Structure to design on (312 residues):
């Protein structure tokens, strides 16, 4: 059986910590290039990239990361996924015959589950679905681990915005590491009920999840403030309605002033400046957004090593 990474919940808390530690080693070794200890770690493996939505960071960091681990990368055009061509599970069963892993960005998480159920020998990695973005959360936790010297216990992270994919994986990962999460969303855009239940199950060191509708209450005295676009990929027809409903959830200097003085600002990017975040905040000294983007590379290399070289 191949290991999959569809969700942060596919890792135990110990595996999540190990992956962050490995990301730090991979990052430190990167200047050694072909002499890095992991430069040939995945030699002979074939890994596919199949993206049904646009991507800058995820696509580029996986492409570079796969090469830096010595594996072969194949871009699979998204049009092969059209249902009128062949069923999704048949696409997956073909891929399983040729490659070791496929990294997929798609719509519903159910599409990823359909693939994993059809392909026990293929590792499937979630490069973002409507419901979860676990690769992003790995990089986010790695970025915070660097800033907080690996200490998550007692820390509080506020997420302000839409309680969908990025927020869900943030909640899973932060709670597994022992940080509490405050989530502020407009009514109707809360975390899924399943996520709230999962958070309670995976919480370590007494970390708690608290949901708010008031963004000011959510960010008061927190150590980190996170936001994401108000309109996710695939929801473009809802843009005007969402812009209206999310207006008071903008992360601006007045909102950041309520967090701890040494708090950091996080965003998965792409950012819509002037909507969910102001220029002043994203360009401020507290902003770690480009550290997060850089760390996508190191965190995903560590995840690929974990998923492809440790038994299920
Ligand atoms: N944060 C993120 O996943 O960026 P891309 O959509 O550009 O891959
Ligand atoms: N929530 C956003 C994240 C982009 C990385 C989206 O799904 O479009």
């Amino acid at each position: 059986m191949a290991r999959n990474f569809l969700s942060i919940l596919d890792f135990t808390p110990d595996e999540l910590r190990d992956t962050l530690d490995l990301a730090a080693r991979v990052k430190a070794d990167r200047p050694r290039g072909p002499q890095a200890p992991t430069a040939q770690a995945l030699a002979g493996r074939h890994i596919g990239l199949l993206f049904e939505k646009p991507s800058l960071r995820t696509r580029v960091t996986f492409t570079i990361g796969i090469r830096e681990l010595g594996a072969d990368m194949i871009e699979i055009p998204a049009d092969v996924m059209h249902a009128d061509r062949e069923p999704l599970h048949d696409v997956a069963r073909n891929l399983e015959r040729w490659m070791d892993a496929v990294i997929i960005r798609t719509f519903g998480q159910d599409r990823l589950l359909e693939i994993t159920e059809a392909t026990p020998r293929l590792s499937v990695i979630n490069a973002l679905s409507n419901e979860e973005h676990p690769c992003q959360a790995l990089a986010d936790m790695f970025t915070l681990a660097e800033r907080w010297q690996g200490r998550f216990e007692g820390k509080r992270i506020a997420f302000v915005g839409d309680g969908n994919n990025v927020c869900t994986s943030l909640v899973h990962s932060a709670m597994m590491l022992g940080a509490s999460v405050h989530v502020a969303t407009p009514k109707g855009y809360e975390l899924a009920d399943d996520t709230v239940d999962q958070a309670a199950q995976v919480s370590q060191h007494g970390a708690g999840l608290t949901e708010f509708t008031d963004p000011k209450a959510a960010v008061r005295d927190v150590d980190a403030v996170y936001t994401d676009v108000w309109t996710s990929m695939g929801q473009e027809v809802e843009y005007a309605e969402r812009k209206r409903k999310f207006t008071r959830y903008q992360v601006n200097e007045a909102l950041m002033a309520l967090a701890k003085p040494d708090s950091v600002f996080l965003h998965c990017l792409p950012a819509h400046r002037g909507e969910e975040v102001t220029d002043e905040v994203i360009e401020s000294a507290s902003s770690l957004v480009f550290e997060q983007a850089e760390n996508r590379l190191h965190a995903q290399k560590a995840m690929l090593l974990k998923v492809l070289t440790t038994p299920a």
